[in-house]
Amino acid sequence: MISFTVRMKFKAEDREQIQEALRALTDASRREPGCLAYVPHALEGDPNTIFIYEQYRDQAAREAHAASEHFKKYAVGCLYQRMLARETENLHALA
Length: 95
Fold this sequence. Notes:
Layout: E1 2-9, H1 15-30, E2 35-43, E3 46-56, H2 59-67, H3 69-82, E4 85-91
Antiparallel strand pairs: 1-3, 1-4, 2-3
């Protein structure tokens, strides 16, 4: 199992477009056969920081997600174009 988080910072004026892209990306990602969890959050107290928890069956499923049309359209085509900063943290399950 592959688990990680992505934290992205955006401008306040982009918030509506970011939320729309996240809704579409989340819906499509959750339908991927190898996606176990895809949960975007706004950071409490800072709605311009988005935190996404992602979990995939294996590395092949993570790569399939990154190669998908919906990822290219909503993540690369929208989120990546508007983000001010991005940080990814890989996780290791303890139990």
